[in-house]
Design a protein that fits this description.
Strand order of the largest sheet of chain A: 1-2
Structural class of chain A: mainly alpha
Shape of chain A: globular
Radius of gyration of chain A: 20 Å
CATH class of the largest domain in chain B: Alpha Beta
CATH topology of chain A: ABC transporter involved in vitamin B12 uptake, BtuC
Strand content of chain B: 25-35%
Strand content of chain A: under 5%
Oligomer: heterodimer
Distance between the termini of chain B: 35 Å
Distance between the termini of chain A: 8 Å
CATH architecture of the largest domain in chain B: 3-Layer(aba) Sandwich
Helix content of chain B: 25-40%
Number of strands of chain A: 2
Order of helices and strands of chain A: HHHHHHHEEHHHHHHH
CATH topology of the largest domain in chain B: Rossmann fold
CATH class of chain A: Mainly Alpha
Shape of chain B: globular
Largest interface: A-B, 21 and 30 residues
Chain lengths: 313, 483
Amino acid sequence: MPRESSVVQRFLPFISLAALFVILSIASPYFLTATNISSVIRQTVVINIMALGMTLVIVSGGIDLSVGSILAFSGVVGTMTMVSTDSVMLGILAGIASGALWGCANGLMIARMRIPPFIVTLGTLGIVRGLTLVISGGLPVVGLPKEHGFLGEGTVGPAPFVLVVLVACVIVAHFMLHSTKLGRYTYAIGSNEAAAIYAGIPVGRFKVAIYAICGLLTGLAGMIETSRLMTGQPTAGVTYELQVIAAVVIGGGSLAGGEGTVIGTLIGAFIMGLLSNGSDLLGINPYWQQVIIGAIIILAVALDVARKRRFAS
Amino acid sequence: MLLELSSIRKSFGGVHALLDGTLRVDSGQVHALVGENGAGKSTLMKIVAGMLRRDGGEMRWKGESVDFAQPADAHDVGIHMVHQESLLAPHLTVAQNVFLGRERMRGFRLDRRSMIDGAKEILEAHHFPVKADSRVETLSPAQKQIVEICRALHGNPSLLIFDEPTSSLSDAEASEVFRTVDALREKGIGIIYITHRLVELEQIADHVTILRDGHTIQSCPAADTTTAEIVHHMVGRDISSSEQRDKLTPGETRLKVSLPGVDFELRSGEIVGMAGLIGAGRTEVCETIFGITPAESGAIAVNGKPADIRSPNDAVAAGIALVTEDRQHTGLAINLSIRTNTTLANLDALCTAEVVQVSKEKAVTEQLREKLQMQADSVEQKASELSGGNQQKVVIAKWMFRDTDVVLFDEPTRGIDVGAKAEVFALMDELARQGKAILMVSSELPELLQVADRILVMREGELVAELPRETTQQEIMHHAVTQ
């Protein structure tokens, strides 16, 4: 068995990210400037935080298509709360809580009514987006307190504040997935749900928790988005779910469940961020960027499939 | 002579499935093939139908030596196998199923009309009570069986092989199948009929062949033999008392099961065997006790306390474990490590404030690995990389760590080698000595006689006999097959 090459391939996402980094440093003199790096971080942080929650969902063998809509709902509810109470903190908490509630609703329908996650979240994708437009009247929420801008655009020393938020989320998510009972059961459910049930695990309860966490992180990402735009956009986050799923998959997550890591997802999200930033810097037509990212997704999964096939034989 | 098989051999990875398969079938004859689970019946028939290739022996078709590389080769000469209903597409109609894979075309379009007419022709020619345009999902199990037969008849077969066609049918439905088989015999078609239900032999068989451990034991006209003789040939030798496990004095009642038609108790220190044919409802009993398919009526009590078991979660909490018959699908998360699988059912014991104490977990798993002598590189190895016997040890380790009072073993030796079997039995014995109560479902009668303190026999969903450990294989088989 070619163990060495399989190790290389296991770290492929990381190696790709490093290679991309080096190539862009050489190709563009602007790439390695503090301004550009912090702009990459700010641009990817929303997708990145959502992808952390999606990692749990995908490892459990599920999928959540509604995250883009939940992002907008949380943003609108959060900013409306902010405007009416004049409290930034209260607004942010309301946004995060509303995200968690929608995640919980997804989880309950999947676990209790036994509807496939794809269908449930396809439904809530529409429901949540529609409700967001209803409560906002289709108009952006404006007039946010100035202090709200700190969340998305503030700095701590030389670093963007969102980096601190991201690092904290990554640490918590990594710990949750790899060291807690919830994380262990997430892998077990995704690897073989029947075996998890036969081991006496209350699988339904844990599924609700997994989708709730995904919703909660999406709520947080929604508030960051409103802070960066300084408005609550009811149309925010359209098609984000695809970028989020792509980040998890590029990072080694398997849609069949049982596989995926927080660090892998982090790398996956940064690969996507660097690809679009690099394309901008190198003056590649944005139309072509979509083509490149699409091809990278297929390539990443193709390599992963090939690795597993070789490992199995 | 239509088909002659002599001394057919076949093995799978060193396991001999068939050593001497010998059989002769004539046109217009119903030839019954009987034998215990694993006797080699299906293997022999798959060779005839071109689904498997033989390792040795002679196969002659209408006097000429033949060798089929694929099912299509067997179809070409007129041999068809009637599969069980599960191979039909339920959302398609009867006609669509009959022509599945060999659709009649009109240019680029399906010739719907012609296919419906074709199906009707076959149905009417044999007076089958099924409509060509019914959706298959709306049919009864017997009618689905008829659709399978039509699929085979469409190729104008000379030989039809039926693989336990009545195993999932009621008596009334089974007689519908018998009438069909009779009609086919009238038309001069040769029929090989695999069955577990010996009562059927009198009704339909002209000739009987008995297989045991891959050998043809006897082949004779059905009129020349009796059910008792057939049972005797099916089971072979008995276990001597010296091979039996030492009997312990049973303690208090651990599990009391009172379900419709199934009433029994398991006591501390006891290993109770459960015998029966495939489909007799043994696995269903285990799954009901374990909460996979909760009981609609009846009661289950653990250690004298009534237990309302609605899910495996409830069952485990009440103190019941199930070692399932299917390690791959329900026993193990095959892509996860030995460590993860071992602790899965009792992770709470290793958690402090929801956080898994991995060092403690490693120590526990390492201990169990040594105790159970699992052959593995380390406890971090994936379960999928282990042999069947070692996988089974992981499943047993999982429940040993959970330490339940009752352990149900469903076919614990399936797919594991002889050495590992002995080790599994030793573990069961140890669990009994610890005061647990054990139920062992097995299709291997010698194993039951070797390990169990008493043996329950299931037939058609009901518990029909309770036999002492001194019983014989004939006695068990007698209760399992006859009314």
